[in-house]
Amino acid sequence: MTDPQNALPLDEGSRAALAAEGLRYAQLDPADTAAFDRWLQAVYRGFHFDAFTDEQLAQYRDGVGPSRVIGVWDSTTAEAESPIATVASWRSPLRLGESRAGESLEVEGWAISLVSVAATHRRRGVARALLEGELRAAHAAGIPLAMLTASEATIYGRWGFGPAAYTADYRIDTRGLRFTAPLPDGRVHRVTARDLRPLAVELTERAQRRIAGEVPLERQQYDRLFALAARTASHAAKLRAARYDDAAGVPQGYVLYSVTENPNDFSDHSLRVEYLSAATDDAYAALWHYVLDQDLVSTVKASMRPVDEPLPWLVSNPRAVQTTARHDHLWLRILDVPAAVTARRYAAADSVVLRVADDLGFAAGTWLLSTDSEGRATVTAGGSSPDAAVIDLGVEALGALLLGGTPIDALRLGGRLTEGSPGAADRLAALVRPTRAPYLSTWF
User: Fold this and answer.
1) Most-buried pick from 45, 72, 275, 434 (CB within 10 A)?
2) C-alpha distance across the termini of the chain, in Å
């Protein structure tokens, strides 16, 4: 049954726009199993995945069911019961790191996922109706921002989303590499992924509270990660796991990994880090030491890791840790400027006037952002101050800089942000600068 928290009304503007194109826009009842399965198959056809088996359908139906699930149908198609477009959405906290006092910070977001439009129905306003319908529904419900992970970087800026957190892929040559960072007093245990799974939620959530940009994983995401879901079960034989316990015996982190054999050289295996979660600095160091100290492994690869991974500073040869790719990952769309901007903490005390342009109107206006010495913020609509820096920007730039992960000067050079007073960009950069780069460790 749909979670009441996600049961927002269907957007009338989107319904009318699609009806004018001869299309039906409707919310799906998860209790209608046959219709829901057709919706799921349409989603994964849109993403070019293999068709679901009956077992996979049952698992995904169970996981997606609590979301707000919407489809678009065309009664004139050969398979009129299958949707030609899809979207799912739900309320989710967005982690904002910790305050100076160690308080865990977060803001409520509207997570948007599984957006697909069939190639047969492009350029008919379907995607626009889906996205604008989600934004209007979330705004009407008082949710401060919308968020998504984008498969394509050229789509979502037109609706005011900006890339706010990035990931990097790494390749590490372990030949002759020594781990030089101090090793903690705790202990790493080799465990099975199945046995580790019950601890995963608590450990991951504690790790996520330290980092701005994280979104809690759903149960299905954990099951897929641990090769316990039907879609990833074939990987279970290769998946390996280790857990770090501190000196008091308390679990503080884990790593999931797999090893690929080189058939031509048994001493030249490749290890892939599939997920590493550390609730403490000691756990981070101990788990990476374990990964890099494997016999018969010459190469370690890790994808979707933070762009400021500390690892190069923990080993004898920083050049051995090569960044092989960098990707935009988490995109944010501000809907309520005061609620979104005051939820985080800032690095300095200052005042900045943000003059925000927003074609859809949700965030448009002049906003005085004032921060104190503890990093707390207030926002005043229409406010001004003679000493405040002045910035003009679009709502997509506001989303991009909210977590501090996008360089302010890059936005300025790209024309996404202009200074209304001398030195305004530098003052804003000093405010939003994070201790660690924002990071999201999963897709949603």
Assistant:
1) 72
2) 20
* 349 within 8 A of 373, measured Cβ to Cβ: yes
Query: Residue 418: exposed, middle, or buried by beta-carbon count in 10 A (0-12, 13-18, 19+)?
Result: middle
Return the pLDDT at 245: 98
Give the integer Cα–Cα distance in Å for 290 and 197.
20
Could you tell me which residues are beta bridge partners of residue 245? 187, 251
Helix (H, G, I), strand (E, B) or coil at 136: helix
Residues composing the chain: 444
Burial class (CB in 10 A: 0-12, 13-18, 19+), 131: buried
Reference 162, options 176, 143, 148; nearest CA is 148
* pLDDT, tens only, 223-248: 999 999 998 999 999 999 999 999 99
Nearest-angstrom CA–CA distance, 396 and 164: 10
In this prediction the pTM is: 0.96
Residue whose C-alpha is closest to residue 442's, from 198, 311, 256: 256
Please, are residues 11 and 68 in contact by the beta-carbon 8 Å criterion?
no
CA distance 440 to 214: 5
Q: Six-digit token pair at 97?
A: 């790191």
